[in-house]
Write a structure and sequence with these properties.
Layout: H1 8-12, H2 22-38, E1 42-47, E2 51-53, E3 56-58, E4 62-66
Antiparallel strand pairs: 1-4, 2-3
Length: 79
C-alpha cells in the first residue's frame, strides 16, 4: 500500500540515505482510519505534511472536517 502513494519515490527512493520509521507511518495510517471508522462525523482528514524520519513521524498540520451524522438503527426499517 505504501509503495502506491504519490510520495513513494521520496519515501523509498532508489536508495534512501537513512532508513525511515515505516512502522510508525503504518501506525499513523491505521490510527487515522480507525478514528474515521469510530467517529462517523469525520468527513475528511488532511494530514499535511507528514514528515517521516529515522526517529519517527511528525504531523505539524492536520485538519479534520466534520459533518453531522444521524445514527442508524439496523432494526428499524425506513418507510
Amino acid at each position: 500500500m505504501l509503495h502506491e502513494l504519490r510520495a513513494a519515490l521520496q519515501l523509498f527512493g532508489p536508495r534512501p540515505a537513512q532508513p525511515l520509521d515505516m512502522d510508525t507511518v503504518i501506525d499513523v495510517l491505521l490510527r487515522t482510519a480507525r478514528m474515521a471508522e469510530l467517529l462517523h462525523e469525520v468527513a475528511e482528514a488532511d494530514l499535511n505534511p507528514v514528515i517521516v524520519t529515522e526517529q519517527g513521524v511528525r504531523i505539524p498540520d492536520a485538519r479534520i472536517r466534520l459533518e453531522p451524522h444521524e445514527p442508524e438503527d439496523p432494526f428499524i426499517k425506513g418507510t
